[in-house]
Amino acid sequence: MGTYRPEGVIETARWYVAEAHQPKARPHRAQPSEASRSEANRLAGRHVEAPRSEARRVEAPHFEARHVEARHIEARNVEAPHFKARHVEARHIEARHIEARNVEARTWRTRDSAALLSRALPRHAVRVSHAFATDRLAHEGLSWKSSGHCADRHNRVCTSMQAMRSETLAGVIALKRESGCKVVVTGGTEAGHAPGAFSHAAGYKIDIRHNECVDRHITRTYPKAGVRSDGAALYRSGDGALFASESDHWDILFR
């Protein structure tokens, strides 16, 4: 650039003036890459939203995951009734097994109770009361009669079953069941009978009235066992009961 005096005319070349009026070109700066901007933003603590295309690519797996989860839920809903059915069936099977075990346990308890009862029974027959004996006779269809219309054991005109052995009572009831005949008891443990270890008073004997049905059953069912000292014909059953035919009744011994 030259220095001129004021009175002179300043002249410059046209190229210099044109160049002076042209805007100065800014130096070219390289644009930072996307990775550089992201890193710079991360370091500056700023959040920059990712491009939509990238966001769609990122969200796609979430949509796919939701579809997969929906399919799994549907599959579980379909399989649930089957699992429930199997569970109900398993409960029924288990209930049947428990019931079978309970039945078996009750059976074993019954057998054990029967075995204990058989061991607990007394070796000697128990003695029954008159009231108990008459109730059992009435229940089984038997009856009893007394010439004196009484049940005093110490009165010979009475008919008493006081202190009678239970086996004797059971024996006469069994005779009624086997024969199907009418059985009427006329003598028991009352006074007036012959004494002895296996006598009426001891509870081993009982008297029943003669009738055609009873006579026929005893004489045709049981074999003869001789004649007693008083002339009464004897018949013995298979279980050892001895029947003596007296004038107006059967004198029966159950041992």
Strand content: 5-15%
Q: Cα-atom Rg, whole angstroms? A: 61 Å
Series of H and E elements: HHHEHEEHEEHEEEE
Number of helices: 6
The number of domains: 2
Q: Give the class from helix and strand content and strand pairing.
A: alpha+beta
Strands ordered across the widest β-sheet = 2-4-5-9-8-7-6
Overall mean pLDDT stands at: 76
Q: Enumerate the spans where pLDDT stays under 50 for 5 or more consecutive residues.
A: 12-20, 47-51, 53-61, 116-122
Strand tally: 9
- Sum up the overall morphology in one term: rod-shaped
- Main β-sheet: number of strands, strand sense, barrel status? 7 strands, mixed
N-to-C CA distance: 167 Å
Gist of the model:
The protein has 255 residues and is of the alpha+beta class.
Question: Could you explain the architecture of this structure?
Answer:
The protein is an alpha+beta fold. The protein folds into two domains: 51-121; 127-253. It contains six helices and nine strands. It has helices spanning 14-21, 34-44, 52-120, 130-139, 166-179, 212-221; strands spanning 127-128, 143-144, 164-165, 184-187, 205-209, 224-227, 233-236, 242-245, 249-253. The chain has a seven-stranded mixed β-sheet with strand order 2-4-5-9-8-7-6, with helices on one face. A two-stranded antiparallel sheet has the order 1-3. The protein starts with 13 loop residues before the first helix and ends with a strand. Residues 12-20, 47-51, 53-61 and 116-122 have low confidence and may be disordered.
Topology:
Elements: H1 14-21, H2 34-44, H3 52-120, E1 127-128, H4 130-139, E2 143-144, E3 164-165, H5 166-179, E4 184-187, E5 205-209, H6 212-221, E6 224-227, E7 233-236, E8 242-245, E9 249-253
Parallel strand pairs: 2-4
Antiparallel strand pairs: 1-3, 4-5, 5-9, 6-7, 7-8, 8-9
